[in-house]
Amino acid sequence: MLDKSIPHYNVIMKRSAGIPLPNSALPPGYSFSWYVPGKEEKWAEIEASVGEFDHIEQGLDYFRTEYLPFRDELKRRLLFIRNEDGEEIGTITSWWNLTGGRRDPSVHWFAVKKEYQGIGLGKALVSECLNRLQLLEGDRDIYLHTQTWSYKAIGLYLKTGFEILSHESFAHYNNDYDKAVPILKTVLY
């Protein structure tokens, strides 16, 4: 869940090439599944459940605009976690962003439904995402954009080798380091 009780600032993180990849397994009873056409609503439902979108339709609109033009890429980059009943309850995307003429591997849209948080699903999603990015993009720097509202995810990213960047950025994202770090220090450390 996003914590919207604190100020919102952009945070840019990078995981440098050459760092050993994490290997976190799913807890028993859970499984990974890749995107297949028709799972857009499940993705939007998960993202809306953690506060990334106000409602499912808003998430669907975003998905249709940003991801559906790359349907073949989605099949190998958009990952779900399913519970024992086969319901999708978490997601992450091993994507990329363009920075000028450079294609940067990046983590997009990481979320686990609230009732499933805190049992290791997030660690397993991030681990699988990073492994997939290295497989698809090679051993390169990996970026992500997040925000202070996602400080719990930031804590997980830090444990998997990401660093908060003080000045650098990628794609079109702003870096609010000077405003974000004082807030993060109160909730992370």
Automatic annotation (TrEMBL):
Its EC number is 2.3.-.-. Gene3D superfamilies: 3.40.630.30. Pfam families: Acetyltransf_1. Residues 40-188 form the N-acetyltransferase domain. GO terms for molecular function: acyltransferase activity. It is an enzyme of class 2 (transferase). Keywords: Acyltransferase, Transferase. This is GNAT family N-acetyltransferase.
